Amino acid sequence: MTTAAAAPGPAIRVEGLTKLFRRAAPGEQLRTLKSALLDGSLTASLKREEAIAALEEVSFEVGRGEAFGVVGGNGSGKSTLLKLVAGILRPTAGRVVVDGRVAALIELGAGFHPEISGRENVYINGAILGLSRREIDRRYDAIVEFSGLADFMEEPVKNYSSGMYVRLGFAVAVHTDPDVLLVDEVLAVGDEAFAHRCLRRIEEHLAAGRTLLFVSHTLDLVEQVCDRTLWLDAGRPRLLGEPRRVVDAYRQAVAEEEGREHQAAKEQQEGDAAAAAALRWGSGEAEVAGLRLLAGPEAAERYHLVSGEPAVFELTVRAARPLADFVFGIAVATPRGVEVWGTNTDLAGFRPAQLQGEAVVRVVCPSLRLAAGDYEVDVAVHAKEGAPYDYRRRALTFTVTAPDRGVGVYLPEHRWEFAGGVAWEDVRSEA
Length: 431
Description:
The protein has 9 helices and 20 strands. The radius of gyration is 29 Å and the shape is elongated.
């Protein structure tokens, strides 16, 4: 990492950043210093190695006073990026330029010595972050007050809980008055009251014209705190822009992946006779041979949709012999068993005449206004009095995302209206 002198320009500049890690093949032993010396080279490559790209060709700038968020799944390179910006790691290619003093809260308890007291660790960490002993003396009481650990400062930190580690680490970091503050997911470890205190301090940090680089899986917090957000996917930049737009795109991708996983799990379940027996029953006189979800105006098969999109539940039904008594039914519920919606052909007023061979049955929803979440679908074909020919529980799962937040399972079309002495900033148009 290069630390530049104060000058007009961004607080952080990342250019073509790539970080590769080396992994030996299975059964390969790591080279020792002795073996390297015997080979005559300390830099000889490991045999049968394969390079793992933690980051590839990442570029962005963060302005002074800007809160910049980074989101992505586990293993996407978020923490590696913060360590490169902090100077803990060196890039394989590209460069990072940071203007000003950096304080990093990246790994739980990083820089703490477990055998010494919290007070001694405050002085050690403060010195690492560039403070003199006199400066730490002046700030010590404020650090202790912020952390809320006055009764534990003489205790060895090995006796601290994970939340106490975070309290002390964050308190030291923010009281060094850094120009650039790097924060990883560790805020999620603290209790709610301390998290609110940290957020207030971050807001003060930003109001003073300082910079924040923030990594979190708490997407609502990223939207709340950050001015711009970068989505990393397998070490590569996927999208950079306004937080709501980036977070929504990320959630959509996660929903698609979960839909594929749900579908794979369903197929595996169907292949397991024991599991199938627990989730399916009936006489077999007719069977639900297939179930698909067709979503969007294009009616494409997919298992994620945005609330309000058209959706079609398509059943393929086969009758072993001609039937004159039959009802098709469908029910949607949450994974916790909350009934969301259900209907059948009898309730809809259809009088059966004949079911023979194979038939396709579609339940068409022009606008499926479910709230964001995961849903399960039960389907059945049964006699009018209820005797099941084929009842399938959890025959299909799907995920809904929604641009608006709310509670419950139903997201009706709606709008807000106001009159009189109330005004709002027009932030929705920026999303």
